[in-house]
Every structure is written in structure tokens, then in C-alpha cells.
């Protein structure tokens, strides 16, 4: 024992030593951080170490003993050593018999070993009760007390009482235990902290790719074409005009891509006449990524909304407005209100606002705390009914806005279609097929297939 | 056993057969879906069925036996048959003695039977431990793996250990069990998946009714009146101008309706001199629907904000601006800045922005995950103090904006008051009565009544 | 027993009396409210009271007995009396032996007594099983059924079975129990309902102070200076123009203050060469308040966004636009598009939009339900990487917008720098130092220190 780090971590609320002693094997970074925190929370801590003189970083209120002596002092032993060194525990199997061993280890990559570290430990020491916990907490966060992120600690283990004891410690440290069931869940728990938005990767790369394509497409048609043929420099379009063309196009396409896999699934089921054969892998993955696609679409739609609202503040916009008014004034006449234009501009704005409103509603419903308070019927009502309504409104918004361009020859610079025409292909296809699918005769057949009990059994042979 | 569906659902992670065998009675849609999912998660599954040859849809790794033999192989039996057929289980009562029976059934309508299906099952088989679970999960979702919605599985039962066993299975299937207590909760759990936003129905119908009324009111005064008396066609007002009149009016009225029941409650308590008599039913229901009313009001307020911000983009708006500027230009003079107008326009915009800001803050606080992290004192501070501040700001916003119209005779077309005057009745009434209620003498009496111990006992006779 | 309040609270769903009897000591406000609610939920309730004739407010279906007789009728006794009167329970210790005592008391101020009320009760009656619960629920909410706020009931206690029994009652009342571990958590649970946003106090006062300062600074420079030297009355700037100067300045400074403590921490660690000494207290507190600072910054940024978007609707803005156009029209010429201006205006708008977008993303990630679904690696990616990107974008937005003023002499009215110059000091300092800290040589050293095991042990003596 030492007094070097005496003035560090003295927050201990001096709780009348009711807590049971906890033993920590290993004096590494995480072992020390956990020990500090436990002492602060009123637990007597004893470290098990090869050398009892080794370290001046161990909290001063902790005892340091040999592994065997330390283990005998506590019912719970935290194994703060790396998996490679688990073998050295086998000679201690007698001392550890009946004790609760807490495996807190993490791996360096996903599925590094065939079985999880905790299961490996349980196999080495079959007489002990292994509980997996604490691996999702960072030592740095424990140390500094700045647990901004999740305070959840996943706990799993085969022995219910052992798990309860560990969960009580977790709570005492100010964290929230989450029971994940038996030790079989350890693999998943060990993989968890290694992930970096695994569900988001494909949707984000897809969006980035499409965005880059449409951005270049617009640069070519709006800036380079204009520069070559009209000798006008509109390079500043890169900042707002072009993003505000790409964003709505991306939002509409991604929103349609959310509903496209459902269409494919329905067609496959109708064709096969059964729901009991698995969908192709790509369709499964696509369906699992719909929420992410939808949220990215919402992000693009929000950017589009703000880029549009900002228009009147642009120097270009006020210059253009001024030019129009001055030319009227110089011609000494006021043009009357064009009622068709007024109808068109108000309609596409209103359609866009309502579509965006429903879209935001869908986004709010997908917040975890909201969707947990909603049952299946309600969730499907919102995501399916309101979702299709949003898609219809957004498609109509684009049609009304871009309609005049589709027929005008100036929309086909270099024989390339306008970006708005491109953006309408997927959503229109989805809406048309969906319209066919809800025809009573087809819908009835599909409902039968999905209810499973009235299907055509020929196909499943 | 059969191999027909061999290539379907082969995701099983080949977990070293540690899981205990689970028996499923019934080979219907949900029974099969659950069996597939359990086999994928490493559970040996045995089906109990009348005919062991019946089905080629049963997962190939599952055994199919008669009911009694199947039941003997497992400690947990999932009853995937409909309530009407529960009676056939009574002859098996000896085999099922001491087993955990999981009732997964649902009804077709709310409170279909006097007692819940699970309680009915427990009465039929008093020797078994009945646990209610899985009824909130859809077979389609289990099958396709696309559990976008809630992963929560409500579990209830009188035997704690049986419940723990079922909750472990729930966790192993990648779902989140939520302990709802004893079997008495089964009725509520069975009703849950049948609901479609029960709390939202009245507020939504009320809003739709009021919206329709105000919309027609505006159409009559703004379009028909103008068309008849001024021969001007403003039919395009339907798209944006009129919605942007109806939305703020609805938002203000609904926000006031959130605070009106509290005013009524206070008056009733003051009049009765006690808090120990129940409020009338309509007031109780109204108070329970305040959150929904408030959120719908927020939706209207958001639409109003976007409709307003979009104004400069309208063809009508730029035509009107241009007309004004050109007429000045043709008259060869620049009008000086009208300071009163500048003050008025900036004030109502600022009041509206601040009111909307507080309103959004209230909305965020009502998100389940946020309100769970807030104690009573904090919740009341936000919802009551900040809520009234939002109401005051929004009322002031409307007063400053519409003030000039109230006195002008042109506001009373066909002797009907302007819509803004109508919208101010409820909020002003709420604010005036609230102002009276916070007078110290009245407030003190009310506080005494609500603290309960210093009330006037005469009335409760 | 009495029948006076017979028609009050008759919602009881007539559940077939399966529930175990619950005893309530004390007929005060909360005791009565809880009793009503329990009877509604199907629990037989017996009150223990000094006088069995005392009250006509007790629910009619409840029995009222002396304390000892009442306690004998139930396994669970709810102690609805104040801590000062706990002593009178000691004579009953024999009757209460083995019973579950539920402590529901609250204190009037934080840490009023050295030990929590529940621990005090457990010391007085060592033979009973004390469970802390229900103290976070308000009697008024129980009575009126309007549980808008949190339905969470914190439960703690040393006996697991006793805790389970209490949690079942909590669930039966329609509330959500949250196990907080052993009785040591009682202090925290008793302090919880007394708090009013403790983490928000300092950030809010800091923001209010800074806002007041910048507001006055702008009033002096923009209104008073202009009035004195240019004889122009711009007092209406108070409503929108000045708030829209103060809000972005506050947002930028507060966002920088979120990242400043991390910079300080890195410097301190580099200087000390260890992470094992505690940071100074002010830095610890600052780090714990970063989330709140960031959310307030987001609020200011949102207000700035709306104030900016509203600009074209202001009477002042349309007057200024008109003046500019008319002066061009009267001079009979149209000014060509100024490409530099178009680039500048579009750039700062685009930078601001993207910065704000990332800022909102950070805000959404800090919602409890979202951050609980995110692991440490993901949380740090969002809050650190995306956060710095937002800071860079917002700083660039301000630089591009305000850049022209920094060099112009008119920016230094009364020798005071323009508010935009002031606002850039902290963010630029943060970004410059951060840029130095990510130099490979320094970053490597810092990473070593934070991983703990490769540090320089000289310093920790």
C-alpha cells in the first residue's frame, strides 16, 4: 500500500462500510480506474497482483495482496486482465470455486475468437460463476467522472444471483445495468463497443455516392454549359443553388428507396405464393436499412427546406428581383398578377410543406423512446400510411415545381435530362406499382399469403 | 419431420447446444415463426401437434410429436393455439403440472372476454405456471427479421422464476422483455396491440372539426366575399394564405385549451373547498388529453412558422412587392421608413419567435426519454411556468399582429368578426382567470386545498 | 369506517380479490391518495391509525384499525408518516418483525439529515425489511390520475424479495418501477425530487449574464451611437436586429466553451505527464456541464436561424430593399451582378446552414433515448469529430460574414471592437490550440498518457 496518489479521487462519501469487499485481479488501467470508482462508492477493494509492491498508482485505500489471498477476501472478483493471460487462473480454480468472476475484457476486433472471452473464462473455471459486465464503459470516463454517453452497462451470466450482485455494484457506481440474459449473450456484448454505426455504413456510402454524382451532373449542366454557350460565370451556384437542387433530389430518391424493398417483397411473395421462403440476401439487408435510409432522406429534406428559405437573403436573389422590378419601372408599366403562376407557386410550396411536415413526423416516431411507446398497429399506421402520404406529397411537389421543364427543349442541355426528371423515376415507379398492389384482387391474395394459413402449398416443396 | 423448407431461415449461429429445449403447442403461423426464430437463436424446438405428419412448413430442425410427448421434453411450453381451443389442454393437466406455459394469444377486440386469456388458462390448469408474453410481437416481423418497431415484449406472470425463464428466451431472440408484474396485468397486455392511438382520437377529431370550420370561414370571407364585392379572383389563397391563417388560430386555441381544464379544476376545488371529490368525467378526460392537445397545437404552430417563412418565395408576394416599389418609382419619390410599422412588424415577429421557441421546448420535454429524466418539480416548472409564458407570448403576438384589424370596420365583412378576433377569446379568457387565481389570497387558499391537510371538512359530508 | 366519500374514486375494475392486503400507517394526504389508488387497483387496504374514528376522508372500502392490528393483517406496510415520528414505531418492532416496510418520505431540503430516512428507519427496526419507494410521485398526481410526467418510481432496498413485492405493487398502480439497488441509494432517491435542474443552473446564469452584456453592448453601439452621431432613431432594432446579433455571438461562444475544457484537460495532462491526478475542481465541473452548455448554444443558434429567416418579412427590410431598387430605377440604370458579393453571401449562408445542421445532429444525439443506443466509440465520434466540424463551420460562417468589418474603421465606434470580433476570440483560440494538439508528435504523447500504461511515472510521486 502506498500514499502517493493520496490527493487524487477523494470524493468518497464515507458511507458506513456496509458494502461487501470486492477483489480486482490486475492493476492495469481499467482495473485501477474501476477500483478508484468503487472505493469512492464505498466498497472496500483488494487487488490481486503478482507483486504486492509493484505500483504507486493503485488507490491508497485499496489493499494489494497475492492473487490467492486477495480472492479469499471477496465473493466477487473482477478479472481485469487480458484474455491471453486467462490461463494463469487455472491453478487458482480451487480458490475461485463458487466465486463470482466478472469478465470485463474487450477484444480488438469483431469476433476475434470463436467463443467470447467470458465463455472462455467459464470453460477454464467451471466451478466459478462468470458474469460479463463493464466492458462497454471506458476507463477514461470512469476516471474523469464525465459519463456523458450511455450509462448503460450490459450484464449477462448464467447464474441469476451472481448477476444480481454485479448489477447492484453497477447501480452503486451510478451506472444503469441492463440484463442481457445468459452468458451466450457475451459475444454480442463484447462486439458492441467495437462497432461504429454498422447499420449506417451502406446508406451513408450510397448517399455520398449519389450526392457526388448529382452534384457533378448539376455542375456540368448549370455552370459549365452556361459558361461555354452563354459566356456567363455562375460558379457561385456551387454554394447554394446546386446544393439546393441536389438535396431535394436525394431526399425524394432515398424516400422512394425506403418503400421500394416493400414493393419487391410483395411481388416476390405474390410470385412464389408463399411467405415461407427467405428473401434474397440483398433484399433482407435493404429492408433492415430502411430506417437509416429514411433518416438520411429526412436530413436532405431538412437541408433543402433551409436552403430554400434562405433564398431571399442571397445577394443573387435580391439582384434578380431588383432587375425584374427596374425593367418594369423603366417600361413604365406594372404587370398584372399572373394567376396561373400564383396557383403553381403556392401549390408546390404547400405540397412541399405538408410533405416535409409528415416526413418530420415520421422522423420523430422513429426516435427510440417514441417508438417504444407505440404498438405494432400504430407503428405500421405511421410508417406505412403516413409514409406513403409523404411520398405522394413530395412527388407531387416535384411534379408541380418541375412540370414546366419536362416539355421545354431547354431542359435537355447536351441531350441530358433535367435533374428533376431523373429524380422522379424511382418515386413514380414505386407509387404506380403500389397503386396496382392495393387493387382489391391483388391485395386480398397478398393478405392471405402474409397471414400464412391460406397460402398455396405447392410452391414450398 | 421434413426437409422441404431446408434452405429457409438458416441463420442459426450454431451456438453450442446449451439452450434448454422449448416446446410449442400449435403449428399455426405464429407458432412456426416463433419456432424458426428460436432455432436460429440456438434453442432445440419440439412441436406438439395433433398429427405429426401434418405440415411441411415446420422448421426442419424441429421435432414434431404428440402433445403429451412433446410437453414431456421441455420445461417451457408455448401455447400457440387460440383461446377457443384451450379446453383441449385440460386432459393434459397432469403432464403440464409444474411446467411453464407461455400464453401468446391475442383477441380480436378490446375486453372480448371477462377475464384475460392468460388468466383463463391459469384457471384451467392450476398446476402450471402461466406466463403471458410475445403477444405484442407480429409473426411477420419475427419471420422477416425486420423489427423496426418496438422490440419490447411485455411479460407478466405470478411465478417469478417462470417469468425469469421466459424473459431469458425473449432476450435470446434479440427482444427486450419488460416485466409488467403479476398475471393480473395480462388483460392490459392483451388489449395493448389492439389500440390505435386511443389517447389521440378525441384531440385529432376536435382539431379536424375546428380546422374545417375555420377554413370554410376564411374561404367565405377572403375568397367569396372578395369575389362578389370586389370582383377579384383570389382562389389561389386556398393553398397558402388561408392555411396560414387557420394554423396560427388553431395553434393558439389548442394551446389555450391545454390550460383551460386546469383553470376549471382550480375553480371547482375553490368552490367545493376540497380536493377529495372527483372532477366531472369530461374534465378528467380533458386533463388526461392535455399532452396530445399541446402536441397538435405545436404541429399547427410549426406549420404556421413554415408557411410564414415561405411567404417571400410566393409569386403573389413578389408581384405585390414589385407593384408597391414600381408605384413609388413612377411617382418619383421614396417613402421614408414608417417607424411605427417597423416597431409593430418587428415586435410581433419577435414575440412569435420567442413564443414558438418556448413551445418547441415544451414539445421536447414531453418526449418520453426526456420527461423520464425530469422529476415532478422540474416537469411542473417547464409545463406550467414556461407553458404559460408561451401562451402569453403567442397571445401577445396575435394581439400585436391583428390589433389594427379589430377596430377597423373592414374587418367585419358580412358582420362576421375577423378570424383573429375569434382566436383570441379562449386564450384571453384563460389568461385573465389565471391572473385572478394567482392573487395571493386566492392562491393561498388553493394551495391549502391541494396540500389536503388544511381544507374545510364541511363539504365532504 | 364511513360512507361519506362513497361516490369518489369508484374506478375500481373489480378485479377478483387476488391482491394481497396492504397496510398503510398514517392517514395524511399521501397515505390517503395512495390508499385510494391501491383500492382502485384491486388491493385490500387497511389503515393503521391512532384513532380509528378520526377521518371521513379515508376511502370507504378501506378498514381503519390500530397500528398493531393493522400491521398484523398485511405483509407490506407503507409508512406514510414523517421522519420525526418514526420513533413511535419502535414499540411495534415485534409486530413489524419480518414485514416489508415501505418508506415513502421526503425531506424539505437536500441532505437534511446525515443518513437517509429509509436507512434511519432500517436502523430503528432492524428486524424489518425496509424498501424505499414512491417518494418521487406526487399525491396530487396519484389522486387526479394525471400522471403526465415521469411514471418512474425509484425503488431500493437490501432485501431482494421485499423489493420485488413493492415493485409489483408499483406496476399494478400503472407506474414503472426502477430498481436502484441497495438501501444505500435511498439518500440519492430522497434528494431527487428536491432538485430543480441542478446541472443547468450555472450554464443558464452564465448565458444570461453574457447575453445581457452583449445586448447592452449592441444597444450602445447600434442605437445610442447612431442616435448621437447620425441623428437616426433605430430603437426598433431592439426587437429583432440586436437579438439576431446577440444570438449567433452567444451560440458561437458557448459552442467554443464546450470544447475549451477538453483543451485545458489535454494541456494539463501533457504538462503533468500523467492522467492519474485529478483536474482542478472548476475544470471537473465545467466538463460535467458541457452537454448543458452545448444545448443552450443550440437554442441560441436556432433562434439566430429563425430571426435570420424572418428578415425578409420585416417592414424595415422591405423598406430598405425598395429604397435601393427605386434609387437605381430613378438613375435609369441596372447595376450588374456583383460576383464577389454573390460568392460571399452564398458562402456564409451555406457555411451557416451546414454548421447548424451538424449542430442539430449533435443535439439529437444527446437525447437520452438516442445516446443510450450508441456506444462509446460512436458517441465520441459524433460529439468530438462532428462537434469540431460544426465549430469550424460556424467559425468560418462568422469570419466570412463579418470579415469585411474587421478592417473597416467604421467597425470601431467609440474605439470598441465590433461584436463579431469579440465573438471570434474564444472559438479561434480553441481551434488553433486543437490544431496544435493534433500534431502527430503531441497527439501520440497524449494518447499514451490517456491509455495510462505508457506514461511517465516520475510525476506522480
Description:
The structure is a homotrimer. Chain A is α/β, with parallel strands linked by helices and about 450 residues long. The first copy, chain A, has 2 domains: about 20-195, Rossmann fold (3-Layer(aba) Sandwich); about 200-460, no CATH class. Chain A is about 55% helix and about 5% strand. Chain A has 17 helices and 8 strands. Chain A has helices at about 30-40, 65-70, 95, 115-125, 140-145, 160-170, 185-190, 200-230, 245-270, 280-290, 290-310, 315-330, 340-365, 370, 375-405, 420-435, 440-450; strands at about 20-25, 45-50, 65, 75-80, 100-105, 130, 150-155, 175-180. Chain A has an 8-stranded mixed β-sheet with strand order 3-2-1-4-5-6-7-8, sandwiched between helices. In chain A, helix 9 (about 245-270) packs parallel to helix 16 (about 420-435) and helix 11 packs across helix 13. The relative contact order of chain A is 0.07. Chains A and B meet through helix 10, helix 11, helix 12, helix 13 and helix 14 of A and helix 1, helix 5, helix 6, helix 11 and helix 12 of B.
